[in-house]
Amino acid sequence: MKTIGVLTSGGDAPGMNACVRAVVRAGVANNMLTVGIRRGYTGLLENDTQILTSRSVGGIARNGGTILKTARCLEFKTPAGIRQAVENIRALGIEGLVVIGGDGSLHGALELHKAGIPTVGVPASIDNDIAGTDMAIGVDTAMNTIMEALDQLKDTASAHQRAFLVEVMGRRSGYLALAAGIAGGAEMILVPERSFRMQDIFAEMARARERGKPHFIVVVAEGASPNAFEIQSALKEQGEPGFEVRTTVLGHVQRGGSPTAFDRLLSTRLGTMAVNALSEGQSGIMVGVQMAGRMMTPLVDVLREARQPDDDLLGLEDLISL
Amino acid sequence: MKTIGVLTSGGDAPGMNACVRAVVRAGVANNMLTVGIRRGYTGLLENDTQILTSRSVGGIARNGGTILKTARCLEFKTPAGIRQAVENIRALGIEGLVVIGGDGSLHGALELHKAGIPTVGVPASIDNDIAGTDMAIGVDTAMNTIMEALDQLKDTASAHQRAFLVEVMGRRSGYLALAAGIAGGAEMILVPERSFRMQDIFAEMARARERGKPHFIVVVAEGASPNAFEIQSALKEQGEPGFEVRTTVLGHVQRGGSPTAFDRLLSTRLGTMAVNALSEGQSGIMVGVQMAGRMMTPLVDVLREARQPDDDLLGLEDLISL
Amino acid sequence: MKTIGVLTSGGDAPGMNACVRAVVRAGVANNMLTVGIRRGYTGLLENDTQILTSRSVGGIARNGGTILKTARCLEFKTPAGIRQAVENIRALGIEGLVVIGGDGSLHGALELHKAGIPTVGVPASIDNDIAGTDMAIGVDTAMNTIMEALDQLKDTASAHQRAFLVEVMGRRSGYLALAAGIAGGAEMILVPERSFRMQDIFAEMARARERGKPHFIVVVAEGASPNAFEIQSALKEQGEPGFEVRTTVLGHVQRGGSPTAFDRLLSTRLGTMAVNALSEGQSGIMVGVQMAGRMMTPLVDVLREARQPDDDLLGLEDLISL
Amino acid sequence: MKTIGVLTSGGDAPGMNACVRAVVRAGVANNMLTVGIRRGYTGLLENDTQILTSRSVGGIARNGGTILKTARCLEFKTPAGIRQAVENIRALGIEGLVVIGGDGSLHGALELHKAGIPTVGVPASIDNDIAGTDMAIGVDTAMNTIMEALDQLKDTASAHQRAFLVEVMGRRSGYLALAAGIAGGAEMILVPERSFRMQDIFAEMARARERGKPHFIVVVAEGASPNAFEIQSALKEQGEPGFEVRTTVLGHVQRGGSPTAFDRLLSTRLGTMAVNALSEGQSGIMVGVQMAGRMMTPLVDVLREARQPDDDLLGLEDLISL
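^ inputs. structure came back:
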């Protein structure tokens, strides 16, 4: 394999740039040329590409967004779209493709694989709703952005003895709401995966008031039902038991920002894995990480010798100077 | 088990407070009273304690350091020290103990276990050098602090075409240096686990200069040999090939700061696991997480259905209102 | 004067805590006792107070919100309310009062002054709409919070070639919108002080598109007319010329967060000035700073000798150990 | 005036990029072409230049460092150097020059002015040691970086009951140490402008210990004598009264980082003023701001009407779309 392509597609996620960088550098380590395809599948249909070198991806890892741009592309989903894409890929000399994105993007990757293009997917979506990986690119950064907003809202909520309903992203998934809400010390978290009733919220607010809590923060996943505004209306009708209620929609800031160390490392790992998988002849797969395991170890074993850094970190270190 | 104790010991790590909060709340959920022991094993010998309630740990999770204070205690390591500690624990009515700290602290936990006190350890150390867990409390925050410092140093290094040798913490381990250096886009990373020669550094600097790199950042683990200052001297003797060289020791800021979402979640998970382990009759063990797994999944399986939030997040959510 | 009172009132602003700390320490330096009145004028009517010491305000300066809480109080504005307040102040032995807040709070301060209570106001409002000072407490922090949100939104806007309408706080004033918008590199800023027409926005967007701008960020002050949602509707009707349009309301995060160095210093200066003014027998005034001056100085004069730190910084340094 | 030049020189300061952007845009507003001179006076002698357009400075304001690079140049200070520089400036068609930097850079600007080149200086130096302005570009960002480090060090200092000696930049000036130390709540600040004795430090530490302070933070300006390490040695000899002592040198991170809103606004104002001054025929001057004024205003006047945003903000807003 001499030439590979890489594209970012769908909603952007912090860390996409670090992943593009890793793809290019792992390409260099495998003596491959990397072609960047701009604006996702749209760019693939329009032959909107640029050659990516180690130099051209230097310093991009700290930036949010994606230097390749992204887009949602309806035309691509038609058989004619797929045919055109395959033709363009062949004309560009691209022998393997890395697709970085969420489930829509991965559907596209599967179509290309079926059409004979060696394709590997990398999960990137702040929603963390993609099976096959415990963390997708962008989740950790979004979680920290939300947590910091909750820290800030608590300051002002405490000063005024207020309740805040904070709507956070996540589409149909409650992952971001749960993870950020627990980290940010919310008093309640409402998610689509678990039904709740208005009277539970009233009861919880009343109990918080009784126990002297200076604020009451409810994180509401965007997929929750009723949603934040409906809950606020219901609370107002009930006379705002214990706390004056405000609603805040965190919005698109959740997608932006310089990626965290975790997201840069995850992106670097997954990008490298994707290129290695292509060079080993894999296709139609997605790379991912397992993180959810719990362990209990006898202290005598723990103390026998110090933990060594993971081998793959030493392996990634070899790539950084490329 | 009606009463448990908790202490933080050794070097402090961001997230210790979130872990103390989790211990207290998991205690409440198990109908246990929690006694906080101040200044680690020193406080245990001096009966320096305070009752911890849900209210008294409200809002502490966002702060670095530890509300219980920490200390290194030589006296504890003697047989007389252990005997005194066991006596005090019994006198306080503590039936199980959670010890949050690094390897020195876990040695103490093992001694107490051997002396008949039900004891569970929780790994907390920014060095990530503790076996039995893939991430210890504090590592993620320290890694982000270092990465942000590297981002800042690159700004000024690029403006002046300089090389920076950046010494980072980690004791005998190169983990922090590797992880933060890869995330921060360092040009070289020098760690105790892998030997290196001065001429490699010269060669790498010269090559970076040739390729037009505007800066050259070398992350040097504190355990590396030669160390940062010795390397700087050697580079000066060679006439600073390509870049003017500066050394920066990041120092104790690496221990501080508001914990990241990852560290707050990890601390919440581990603290809850520790209390549950005690209540199930476990002792002489350390709780930990497995995170290093890699996966490849066929896209057809990935796309079959969306990933669900981890069950344990839903479980932790039940604790937050306690 | 042996005893002074301090209260925070109205909307909270980051830096209020640093100001309370400065009042207490300047009180100590003047041999005065400081009584903190909780929940603004409400606490004054309800005798909700606490003695503040150097120790009790240690470490609060880095937190947003206000440890004294704040509230809006309608009852206070009646003659009976004022009478009650004066009675309570006298009964508490308070001989002088520092009121930290926005224009509503300062109206209250004027009433108390007229009723014979020595009262000095300190301007605190993220809106920067208070005459008599060039910067109020909280403005600098809010400005940075908004700017960082704009930096984040640009990442995602560029990835998608989008336009964002970003509604920011400021009540009837466009100050925050202008300052944060210029700092954050917005493409347009819409404020109540300057009228604008929808066709100007269309034209500007079209021009940005032509010049190849990857994003188009419009900061809209909450007092602007039409408002952000009305503008979005109008743009959608016109077919979103050049960019897909999204609206984001930054909301209450703008009030929170750890205060910037500027806000902590400003708060320290103003709190100290207020206590000194009271001890010199002043009343019915507000303290403030002048910052808007511009200078041109011949280089020969500039280079004659180095600038010395402001005397008042050396003066404030004397207070920090109190 | 049809063509102007701009260079950054000496130590870099966060905000230099925002100032370059402002120069270019104010140039466009005045129908001038802007030539960027790279690596300060070195680039001037070597004709290392690039044309700057609105597009090429888009998005640079949020980055630390300087896109024009900077350097210290000894050759320039000779009469032959000045002659060569004047020749090059004329050959490039540059009719006016903006020099952004500290006192060394402004000396160079004065020489060029004397040699007949219309030259205006802009003060940029994190040390805030330049006469003719109350704040130089970069001071506010550096102050916040130091303050955040102090916040972090307090976490770990409190956990261990430690004293920290924190050496901060500022060359011969104590400004940064004073401003950041007061904002960061240091217990002592040692600066070159005020002599101090070791016994004062002992006494202050002992007093802090008695009063139960959990930490003791001493900010030491790099120009202070004795310096941080000498103080630590003396404290160790005295048996570290009350607190275990550690020293931290913050180092070059103080120069980097994304500029604060204040620095971006100040840079925008000063860059615009410099170009306007050139176009009005000024030379041999430096632009600056006055900020140190204090005001007391009767509350009746304060409350008469709301403060209006400064006219110059509305003026700067006109430039942002250029």
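Chain C is about 40% helix and 20% strand. Chain C has a mean pLDDT of 94.
thumbs up if we can close this ticket
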